[in-house]
Design brief:
Blueprint lengths: L1 E2 L2 H6 L5 H12 L3 E4 L2 E4 L3 E6 L6 H8 L3 E6 L2 H4 L2 H8 L11 H10 L3 H15 L5 H10 L3 H13 L15 H8 L11 H22 L4 H9 L12 H7 L13 H11 L1 H4 L7 H10 L2 H15 L12 H6 L2 H7 L3 H63 L1
Parallel strand pairs: 4-5
Antiparallel strand pairs: 1-4, 2-3
Helix pairs in contact: 6-7, 8-9, 10-13, 14-16, 14-19, 16-20
């Protein structure tokens, strides 16, 4: 419960329109007003701002005859910043930051403190809201059901997603918010492969955070910052088959980055086998196969690894040349080793077809290059011949003129 002075809230320079209305209603009812199970008097005011509405009957009865009481629900995230709101009402300058601006904006709107709301919405947030703060604004605004601010942050994040290379900024975003981001009309993830790389970055980051929290390990520096800014750990919501399906849907992710294809095959096979069992050219599995078999980089890494596995026994007496040693320097090949057998077989078949296609393209490119060089040589020879003929004709013309 927060006990505040009615005069400041009703007549002060930073008055609350909400409290003014409550006092006016209480005065109009003859000094008493029943609101949400409490009795209020106009002589004084106690704002009981809580996030669970669990007050004992004894406490309510004790205050009924002494002071006006107003109960109002605010989300837990906003409730943590009520002391800062009260400091502002009593005359302090607002200490705004990325972590408290969404909550103070919510409270200023909820209590109808227009000056503070304008300062946050029209001055601070336009300066502070950019690519690297957008995820935090997005999550806080979503928690507070401030949909205007949430969508504003989502649009900024979507428009500049191609420039975001730090997965830690996204790791606490819920699957629902990530789906909204992926489906945003202004999405610019950076090229055909961009979105697959950003989603993979988010998946890895959230799994790392889950692992850290599960093992009880936490960066003390980050913990100190969170305590200073009154920030609590955001719960990591589970990722469902439906979430994974829509995050990687062919309409938004038509191509998979060859650098992330093995990751998706492995991650999907372990966590979402139902999604990976889908068939067709638009399925995630088929797009991953196409990315690997159509990439010269993947073929250069993948096919030698398969050859090494086939000759594994030959290296048993040379530990330094063992395929395991090579695999340690290439984590993506470890993902291949963890794939289910049926996906390994399908990937091998797809890779063989892709390798043959790449070889044919390289041969055609080589022949084309030879043809180009030959054409250039013929062109140079023809030009030299024409220049020589022109020079000879010029010399004959000059001699004829001299004889005349």
């Amino acid at each position: 419960a927060y006990h505040v002075h009615t005069l400041l809230l009703v007549y002060g320079g930073r008055k609350s329109g909400f409290v003014v209305e409550q006092v006016r209603n209480a005065s109009g009812s003859g000094g008493k007003k029943t609101a949400r199970g409490t009795t209020a008097k106009s002589s004084s005011l106690s704002n009981n701002i809580n996030n669970n509405n669990n007050h004992s009957n004894h406490s309510r009865q004790e205050h009924n005859d002494k002071e006006a009481k107003v109960e109002i629900y605010v989300p837990p995230l906003a409730a943590r910043h009520i002391p800062a709101l009260l400091d502002y009402i009593y005359g302090a300058s607002p200490q705004l930051s990325t972590s408290n601006a969404p909550s103070l904006r919510y409270l200023a709107n909820r209590f109808d403190i227009r000056e503070l709301h304008s300062e946050i919405s029209l001055k601070f947030i336009p300066r502070d809201l950019e690519l690297h703060t957008a995820p935090q604004y997005c999550m806080a605004a979503d928690d507070l059901k401030d949909f205007e601010l949430r969508d504003r942050a989502l649009n900024i994040l979507a428009e500049r997603l191609d420039k975001l290379n730090n997965g830690n900024l996204l790791r606490e975003m819920s699957p629902r918010l990530m789906r909204s981001l992926v489906q945003c009309e202004r999405l610019n993830a950076g090229g055909n492969w961009g979105l697959s790389e950003k989603v993979a970055m988010w998946l890895r980051s959230r799994d790392e955070l889950l692992s850290v929290r599960k093992t009880g390990q936490f960066d003390s520096h980050i913990a100190n910052i969170n305590n200073k800014n009154n920030v609590q750990n955001t719960p990591i919501l589970p990722l469902t088959d439906e979430d994974f399906y829509w995050l990687t849907h062919v309409q938004k992710m038509p191509e998979i980055s060859p650098y992330e294809a093995l990751f998706y095959l492995n991650y999907g096979s372990i966590n979402f086998p139902q999604v990976m069992n889908e068939v067709g050219s638009g399925s995630l599995k088929s797009r991953c196969f196409a990315a690997i078999s159509g990439s010269a980089w993947c073929m250069d890494k993948f096919l030698p690894h398969l050859e090494d596995l086939g000759q594994k026994q030959q290296y048993d007496h040379h530990p330094s040349h063992h395929p395991q040693k090579q695999k340690e320097n290439n984590p993506s090949l470890e993902l291949y080793e963890c794939l289910p057998l049926d996906i390994k077989v399908q990937l091998l078949e797809s890779s063989l077809v892709g390798a043959k296609k790449l070889m044919m393209e390289r041969e055609q490119h080589g022949r084309g290059k030879d043809d180009t060089n030959r054409d250039m040589q013929l062109s140079e020879e023809l030009m030299f011949k024409k220049l020589k003929e022109a020079s000879l004709n010029s010399s004959l013309t000059s001699s004829s003129s001299s004889s005349s």
